[in-house]
Request: fold
Amino acid sequence: DAGVIQSPRHEVTEMGQEVTLRCKPISGHNSLFWYRQTMMRGLELLIYFNNNVPIDDSGMPEDRFSAKMPNASFSTLKIQPSEPRDSAVYFCASSFPTDNTEAFFGQGTRLTVV
Amino acid sequence: LAKTTQPISMDSYEGQEVNITCSHNNIATNDYITWYQQFPSQGPRFIIQGYKTKVTNEVASLFIPADRKSSTLSLPRVSLSDTAVYYCLVGPPLNNAGNMLTFGGGTRLMVKP
Reply:
């Protein structure tokens, strides 16, 4: 398996534009996590899904952020409208439904909002 | 979720053994202790997980005392490539629906030549 695949790897956009980040989890994994990482705040859990259903989105900063998982092999994180303070690295991770499982992270998307 | 406390940073030299301790005083009965490693510009990577006593794999050892209120990640004979941030996580198994994976501040390990 190629691991968790995120796209794009880098995104530069202007303030006010819509940004969509994409994630393809590892096949067979039933949990998916979205994180944001900045120097100031570290790794923050934004939202996670279990069997394609959002379980906890309390980490989503505000209504400008939304996430979907239409099927087991695809998830999106959308920011509309984007702001400079949204600049960060966004990670997606997935895990397999067995005891004591580990989460596998993608390479991340580095978002810069100018 | 149990709160964890670990040193912000540590320095070491190549060839030394490095021990990073994590405190988790309010760990619950069904909580496991998991360590992740993150290199610059990469996502975190699972290193090791344990419940009690000692766990060892090809990368590290994890020591957990009987009261489970702390744990120590041991990296034998570190090299420059072990320079990374190490995160200690405490929580129930991920297979339980509704469980999250929450990271604290981590320990930034710098290995010097």
